[in-house]
């Protein structure tokens, strides 16, 4: 056969070839694929597989419109044909230079205009990509009030309208003009070992990806038309940890034989992000305006009865929407949505009413953060806002009739009692007091012309806003009505 006619090879050449073939056959072993647990069509659609397409030989005629350079050194302990790996320190500001690589006349529609870039910190490992939401929510639980990714705005140059969505901790975005010098400084606050299963201590941290997706404006003035995406692989260490890891890798490489060193990439001073597919969830993330960017999730009026134009005015006595212990997880989800806790509905997907009511104040604050945590805890416990002023009133006609009845029946004076009604005031104005008294008498507020307070020597003092503000809390008044002869109205006298 033809292969038997080849010239004899030396033992060294044969052994070298076998070693190379064996090394190639083992590439990728050790990664936790978990193929049996997933649909292969879903696995192949994951971002990491799309990014592997960029490892193919590039088209020499293709010049990318943009280039992003992360100003952090790559590791020297990366093999020649593997993707670069960059070490970052937690919380340290790192510059990303945004470069315009367009040829003359290319993409003229964005010349002199803004483009929008979204930066994300996402998982490199495909297993973690499947459980990304659960992983990020777990991180939020352990680090309430913190973000995974932040912009260092004072150090950044050329960026406009920077935004950080409070519900997307790993995402930031901004506008920039390609023709002008632009660099953005980012800070990554999570470390790689926070997403590692704890077993024996000293576990290796998981790698992340820093991905940038850039969009141009469409006819509706929304930045939805994709232009370019690129990413790089990073690991994040505690402060100064990245410097120590870089030094360790460099020392290991110096100890290797010259033949071994040739199999590894040199360490570069900066990291160039390589082209990749756009992040799959970008379709709903980048639409402007994003929820929570221009206004926080808690930007609601304190007095809910006044509401927005689309909100039906509520009666003075509001129906309390208390969560009951018997509520199912589905009922609990509806309650969260009705009470404006939709950002946390996925966190409490499997919580019944009893589960939510068992949470302590500290638990809720740790899960949702201080502002929303206190609001949720108060809602769960059915707490209402205490009125600014409470007064008790009794009709004089009723009091007189009760006294007459008691006297005729020969009852003792100390056994008499009178029925008072509570009036709760929030605004402390005569208008509000008039409306509350009208409700008590089941008449229209227009029928009450004036309200007087009986003063010294029986004089009648006109009640003003300032007088109401100086009423004693939980004060008692007897109401007397006096017909106004000029019209069908009444005068109210407080005694």
Topology:
Blueprint (H helix, E strand, L loop, with lengths): L10 H16 L13 H5 L2 H6 L13 E5 L14 E5 L3 E8 L14 E9 L2 H5 L1 H11 L6 E3 L7 E5 L7 E6 L5 E7 L19 E10 L5 E15 L3 H15 L2 H4 L9 E2 L1 E2 L6 H4 L43 H10 L14 H5 L3 H8 L1 H11 L8 E7 H13 L12 E5 L4 H12 L6 E7 L5 E3 L2 H5 L5 E9 L6 E5 L1
Parallel strand pairs: 2-10, 13-17, 15-18
Antiparallel strand pairs: 1-3, 1-11, 3-8, 4-7, 4-9, 5-8, 6-7, 9-10, 10-12, 13-14, 15-16, 17-18
Describe this structure in words.
By secondary structure, this protein is α+β, with helices and mostly antiparallel strands. It is 26% helix and 23% strand. The chain is built from 15 helices and 18 strands. It has helices at 11-26, 40-44, 47-52, 126-130, 132-142, 241-255, 258-261, 282-285, 329-338, 353-357, 361-368, 370-380, 396-408, 430-441, 465-469; strands spanning 66-70, 85-89, 93-100, 115-123, 149-151, 159-163, 171-176, 182-188, 208-217, 223-237, 271-272, 274-275, 389-395, 421-425, 448-454, 460-462, 475-483, 490-494. The strands form 3 sheets. Strands 2, 4, 6, 7, 9, 10 and 12 form a 7-stranded mixed β-sheet that branches. A 6-stranded mixed β-sheet has the order 14-13-17-18-15-16. Helix 11 crosses helix 12. The N and C termini lie far apart (122 Å). The relative contact order is 0.10. Residues 1-10, 24-60 and 282-320 have low confidence and may be disordered.
